[in-house]
């Protein structure tokens, strides 16, 4: 049993003892003694044993007082050993604003469920989720409501000319640009410019260790760290010299990019972000340069970049990218004008 549960259990036991002791006399039919004991308990707490009680009532009073005092002492001991005011302490941590663009697809709910169960474990995090849709969906709204987390639910539709067509390679066009920009606009309109925190882009097709959120929380400019399973490599990461400075990027694909890093591999200090209103993403940039286009507004050289994750030697986030499930039978049902398998079921 955890310490918080022990405190709650002891408190509940204290209340139960008071209730049971009062009820005991009624059970015996001795209502007059019960009433006098109850009156004495209410009027004379801390003033010694009430007068004019029978020996049986006095014994019951003394027994109850011993139990109550013992429980109060136990609660006091447990409270001293518990992380006091945990919620209050959590609220004093720099806040993480995690931005997640998402779109309708068979694995959407599975991806968002996995991500939400990670984010729910992170203290003082606000989830900003933006759908690529004409309107907000019931599926995402229901999922967010179930988390119990602080969140903001937005939508921004990508024009057809910028959407990836069927069988088109996913990297041919930038994804999530308008959705991330919608989230950034919401932050600038609704968050105090002097608030302590960071901005992080948490895509829904990644896997995150809790350590990555601890690493980013106190970033002063732009923090960077490795990302696993990306760019055709086991890991892409910043190169860090003996002095703890970022001096380049360990990557194969387009290594000459100003910031050759994955979207999951950096976070921006919130005050710095708020001070640069022009900082956002663009559709009209060279393939693979979205991160560089965004980060150039906040840092001008690698000297300003903060290496995290033990000088970029630990991996706390992975670009897992769930594959599209084969739904051949679902397609066959549609062709045969039969109801889909998920009729009236949210999957």
Describe the structure in brief.
This protein has 347 residues and is of the alpha/beta class.
Judged by helices, strands and strand pairing, the structural class is alpha/beta
Biggest sheet layout: 7 strands, mixed
- The strand line-up of the biggest sheet is 3-2-1-4-10-6-11
Helical element count? 12
**Proportion of residues in extended strands:** 15-25%
- Assign an overall shape: globular
Secondary structure tally: strands? 12
Arithmetic mean pLDDT: 86
The helicity comes to 25-40%
Q: Compute the gyration radius: what is it?
A: 29 Å
| Separation, N- and C-terminal Cα atoms | 35 Å
What string gives the helices and strands in order? HHHHEHEHEHEEHEEEEEHHEHEH
State the low-pLDDT regions, or none. 21-47
Please describe what this structure looks like.
This protein has 347 residues and is α/β, with parallel strands linked by helices. It is 39% helix and 16% strand. It has a 7-stranded mixed β-sheet with strand order 3-2-1-4-10-6-11, sandwiched between helices. β8 and β9 form a beta hairpin. It holds the Pfam family Glyco_transf_43. Its EC number is 2.4.1.135. It is found in: Golgi apparatus membrane; Membrane.
């Amino acid at each position: 049993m955890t310490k918080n549960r022990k405190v709650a259990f002891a408190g509940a036991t204290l209340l139960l003892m008071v209730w049971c002791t009062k009820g005991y006399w009624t059970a015996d039919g001795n209502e007059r003694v019960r009433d006098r004991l109850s009156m004495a308990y209410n009027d004379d707490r801390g003033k010694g044993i009430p007068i004019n009680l029978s020996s049986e009532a006095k014994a019951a009073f003394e027994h109850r007082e011993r139990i109550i005092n013992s429980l109060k002492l136990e609660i006091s001991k447990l409270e001293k050993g518990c992380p006091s005011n945990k919620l209050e302490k959590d609220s004093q941590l720099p806040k993480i604003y995690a931005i997640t663009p998402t779109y309708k697809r068979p694995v959407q709910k599975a991806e968002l469920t996995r991500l939400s169960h990670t984010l729910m474990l992170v203290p003082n995090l606000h989830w900003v989720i933006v759908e690529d849709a004409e309107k907000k969906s019931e599926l995402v709204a229901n999922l967010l409501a179930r988390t119990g987390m602080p969140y903001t639910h937005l939508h921004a539709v990508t024009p057809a000319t910028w959407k990836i067509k069927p069988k088109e390679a996913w990297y041919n066009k930038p994804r999530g640009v308008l959705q991330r920009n919608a989230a950034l606009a919401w932050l600038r309109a609704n968050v105090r410019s002097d608030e302590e925190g960071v901005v992080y882009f948490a895509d829904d097709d990644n896997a995150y260790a809790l350590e990555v959120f601890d690493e980013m929380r106190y970033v002063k400019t732009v923090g960077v760290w490795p990302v696993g399973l990306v760019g055709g490599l086991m890991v892409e990461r910043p190169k860090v010299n003996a002095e703890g400075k970022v001096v380049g990027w360990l990557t194969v694909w387009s290594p000459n990019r100003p910031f050759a890093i994955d979207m999951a591999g950096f976070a921006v200090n919130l005050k710095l972000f708020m001070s640069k209103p022009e900082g956002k993403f663009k559709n009209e940039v060279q393939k693979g340069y979205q991160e560089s286009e965004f980060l150039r507004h906040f840092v001008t050289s690698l000297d300003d970049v903060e290496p995290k994750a033990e000088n970029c030697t630990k991996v706390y986030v992975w670009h897992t990218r769930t594959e599209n499930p084969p739904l051949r039978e679902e397609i066959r049902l549609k062709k045969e004008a039969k109801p889909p398998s998920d009729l009236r079921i949210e999957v």
